[in-house]
Amino acid sequence: MTEDTLNSASIGAGALLSVLREGPARTRTELVELTGLARTTVSQRLDALLRHRWVVAADASTSSGGRPAATFAFNRAARLVLAADLGATHHRVAITDLGTTVLAERTADVPIDRGPESTLAWLAQTFTELLAESGYDLADVCGAGIGLPGPVEYLTGRPVNPPLMPGWDRFPVPEWLGERLGVPVLVDNDVNIMALGEHWGGHWGGHWAGYPEADQLIFVKIGTGIGCGIISDGRLHRGAQGAAGDIGHIRVAAADDEVVCHCGNTGCLEAFAGGAALAARITASGVLAKDSRDVVRLLGVGDPEVVHLVRQAGREIGDVLASIVNFFNPGAIVIGGDIAEAGEHLLAGVREVIYKRSLPLATRHLRIQASKLGDRAGVVGAAVMVIEHVLAPQAVDTTVTV
Questions:
Q1: What is the pTM of this model?
Q2: CA 110 vs CA 91, 123, 145, 186, 383: distances in Å
Q3: How many CB atoms neighbour CB 76 within 10 A?
Q4: Can you name the CATH fold of 3-75?
Q5: How far apart are the C-alpha atoms of 378 and 108, rounded to whole Å?
């Protein structure tokens, strides 16, 4: 919501909170001028927000008459958010405030293929332990956001035929976890939450400052598998059924039909350039590599075969992304996931093919870079998903009594 689009007829407590979330602390007079509401109405809605701790009194400012005027600001500490980025083999779990500042976190190597109930029971226990260690409990929490490494039907929060997650198909993740945590649970694909996190971190953290083209952003995760999240006009694009961005199963142009992907098809990008595929190719060359992190470790010691394979993987990914650049015309492509730690070796291959095969107009101002948030992009995005849901003006209006 921007100041110039405020309509006084629609300014409830939730919309007033949005004004304070997106800008500096304001006095009552400034809020009256911004909203067109009567001073008494602004005061009533501010009082309601203060009672629910969504707003706090900030430092006083000097009024035109010389007396300090009370100012009011969004209270990032009003509630906590539980956030989890669950990968195929590696998980990150965190507690954040309403500004996505991470207050506590934990990582663990837990295979997602051990099944939903075992994995989610571990997750619920980890959330409880992190809260206790930080001096909080579930009464302080407004919601939980979960990212899963497979297709998710966003409206229901249920995984749909996830290739890397046997036993998870249609499992009611929000209901199962919500019953144990007692808070709303939102679930999405892990790459979508990473895209949300990178976009949020860019605008609120500053690394997209002065670069509005980043409201058209492609986030590519290269870990065990490959996927991408799409930010269009500053909003996450999920597609009709939540399957947008599944580039890992686009056929590679020079595909070998003998290379079978875990999805059942042949020639998929993920089967050539994903972390698991790279590890298998490196092992076949005579150097043991169990997973994507082993690939990055071997790259760090300068193994020439690994350097060659990673750069070629970058080219194969770049070939798929070149078509997306011509179609979507993003302002930024951000590379994240374990294999992104390969740094310039991977990015060089991606850039080489994108700039060669995409239209000059589409690449004139295009940024191609590694994630600024790194491993935290997922938990930040999971928190953003919850925050935007809980603090939507309509949601606030239903819970705040004026």
A1: 0.89
A2: 7, 10, 18, 21, 21
A3: 15
A4: Arc Repressor Mutant, subunit A (1.10.10)
A5: 14
